[in-house]
Design goal:
429 residues; mainly alpha; 2 domains; transcription
Length: 429
C-alpha cells in the first residue's frame, strides 16, 4: 500500500470513529488531553504501519491498542513525579484488556456523550469549545478547523492547547454530568453545535456562501447528540439544522452566487432532509415541556419548507412564532426577523414601523442586516432614494463578499421597476 493510500485509509477510519476512540481512551485513562494526544500518536504510527503492512482487519481496535500502549508509556514517564500515575500504569499493565473492554457496548454511548460535554464545558471560552469539539469529537485536524474559521493553524492549535490546560486546571472530570447538571450544561453543547452550523450555512467573511463540510459536521454531531441525549431542545436543534440544510441545494446558482429564498427553485430542496427535520420537530414536541428557542426556529423553518411558494407561506404563523421566540430568547435579531415577517404578512409599511422601532432603540448599529432590511422595505414602499442610501450603507458594512454582491445587485436594480411592489423580498437564503 502506498503512503497516500495509507493516509486515505487512516483519515477514513478517524473520520468515522474518532469520537469513540478518544472517548474510550479518555474513559480508560481519565484524562481527555492525554487520550487525544495518544490517539494522535496512534494515527501517526498508523500512517507508517499501514503503508507497509496494510489496513488491519479491525482498524479501530488497532488504533485503540496503540493508543493504550502510548498511554501506559506516558504514565510511566510521569511515575517518578506522581505515585498515582505509577499505580494506574501498573493496573493498566496487569489488566491487559482487549479491544472488547475498551469498546464496552454499554459504555460507548456514554463515552461519546462525556466527550461532547467535556469539550463544551462552560469553563472554556466559546472559541475554545468550538475548536476542541471539532478536534476531539469531530475528528477534524487543526488545519481543517483553521480553514473553516479563517484563522491561522497556530491560533487553532493554541486554542486547543489552552482548552486542555484549562480543563485540567479546573479539575473537569471526564464524565456525563449528573441529571441535575445536565440540563444546564446541555445549553453549552447545543450552542457550540449551532455556532458551527451557522458558520457553515452562512459563512462570514468568506468568498464561499456555504461551507457544506462545516455545516455537515455540525449536523452529524447533532444527530449523535439527539441519539445519546434525547431532549426537546436537542431535537429542536436537529430539526432546525435539517430543515435549513434542506435548502442548501437551491441556495447557490451555477456561478456560486447566493439565491434568495423567494427566487429558489423549491424542486431542488432536499425532501429527505425536510422529512427528517419534520420528524425531529415532532419528537421535540412529543418530549414535552414546550418548544424552546431551537424548536421555535425549527417551526419557522418548517413553515418555509412546506410552502410551495413564498406567497403561500403562512406568514401570520411565522409572525406568531417570532413573537414566541422573542419571549423565550429575546434579541434584536429576532425582532428584525419578526419585522420582515410582518412586512410579508401585512405589507412594507407595517414592517418599516417595526424596523424603525429597532433603530430608535439603537440596536444592531454595527450589523449590515438592519440597513439591508430597511432598504428592502423602503424600496417596496416606493421610497427609492432612501432605499438606495440604506443599500449603500449595508454594502459598506457587510463582511461577506458573496452577500455584499447580492446587496450591490439590489442597489443596481433600483433603477428598474420592482417586480412585486406589494411584498418585500426575503433577505435570507
Amino acid at each position: 500500500m502506498s503512503g497516500s493510500e495509507a493516509r486515505s485509509a487512516v483519515e477514513a477510519v478517524w473520520r468515522k470513529s474518532s469520537a469513540r476512540i478518544v472517548g474510550a481512551l479518555a474513559r480508560y485513562t481519565g484524562d481527555v488531553a492525554l487520550a487525544e494526544d495518544v490517539a494522535q500518536e496512534a494515527l501517526a504510527e498508523a500512517l507508517v504501519g499501514w503503508a507497509t503492512g496494510g489496513v488491519p482487519t479491525n482498524p479501530d481496535g488497532w488504533l485503540l491498542a496503540v493508543g493504550r500502549r502510548r498511554a501506559i508509556d506516558a504514565f510511566r514517564r510521569r511515575a517518578g513525579r506522581d505515585e498515582r500515575y505509577a499505580a494506574l500504569a501498573r493496573e493498566l499493565d496487569e489488566s491487559e484488556p482487549g479491544v472488547d473492554v475498551l469498546f464496552d457496548p454499554d459504555a460507548i454511548d456514554d463515552d461519546v456523550l462525556a466527550l461532547i460535554f467535556t469539550a463544551c464545558h462552560p469553563v472554556l471560552s466559546k472559541e475554545a469549545r468550538i475548536a476542541l469539539t471539532l478536534r476531539v469529537v469531530g475528528g477534524l485536524t487543526s488545519d481543517e478547523i483553521a480553514k473553516a474559521f479563517l484563522v491561522g493553524t497556530p491560533t487553532v492549535q493554541a486554542r486547543i492547547t489552552r482548552a486542555k490546560k484549562t480543563l485540567a486546571a479546573a479539575g473537569v472530570r471526564f464524565a456525563v454530568p449528573p441529571p441535575e447538571e445536565r440540563r444546564e450544561r446541555i445549553g453549552s453543547v447545543l450552542g457550540v453545535l449551532y455556532l458551527v452550523f451557522t458558520e457553515g450555512s452562512s459563512a462570514s467573511g468568506s468568498e464561499t456562501w456555504i461551507r457544506n463540510d462545516l455545516a455537515g459536521e455540525a449536523l452529524r454531531l447533532a444527530r449523535i447528540l439527539a441519539r445519546l441525549a434525547p431532549d426537546n431542545e436537542t431535537y429542536g436543534l436537529l430539526a432546525l439544522m435539517e430543515l435549513t440544510a434542506a435548502r442548501f441545494p437551491a441556495r447557490l446558482d451555477r456561478d456560486g452566487r447566493p439565491v434568495l429564498l423567494e427566487d429558489q427553485d423549491r424542486r431542488r430542496w432536499d425532501t429527505g432532509a425536510i422529512r427528517r427535520g419534520q420528524a425531529a420537530l415532532a419528537r421535540a414536541i412529543d418530549v414535552g415541556r414546550g418548544l424552546g428557542p431551537y424548536g421555535l426556529q425549527a417551526s419557522i423553518a418548517q413553515c418555509h419548507a412546506v410552502a410551495r411558494t413564498v406567497d403561500e407561506t403562512d406568514w401570520d404563523r411565522i409572525v406568531s412564532l417570532y413573537e414566541a421566540l422573542g419571549q423565550v430568547a429575546p434579541s434584536p435579531v429576532v425582532d428584525l426577523n419578526r419585522a420582515v415577517a410582518v412586512a410579508m404578512a401585512s405589507g412594507p409599511t407595517l414592517g418599516l414601523q417595526a424596523v424603525d422601532e429597532i433603530v430608535e432603540r439603537g440596536d444592531l448599529t454595527s450589523s449590515h442586516l438592519l440597513p439591508a432590511v430597511r432598504a428592502e422595505m423602503l424600496a417596496r414602499a416606493g421610497r427609492a432614494a432612501e432605499a438606495r442610501r440604506e443599500y449603500e450603507r449595508a454594502a459598506e458594512m457587510c463582511a461577506s463578499p458573496a452577500e455584499r454582491a447580492v446587496l450591490e445587485d439590489k442597489l443596481a436594480a433600483l433603477g428598474r421597476p420592482p417586480s412585486a411592489p406589494s411584498r418585500p423580498r426575503r433577505l435570507e437564503s
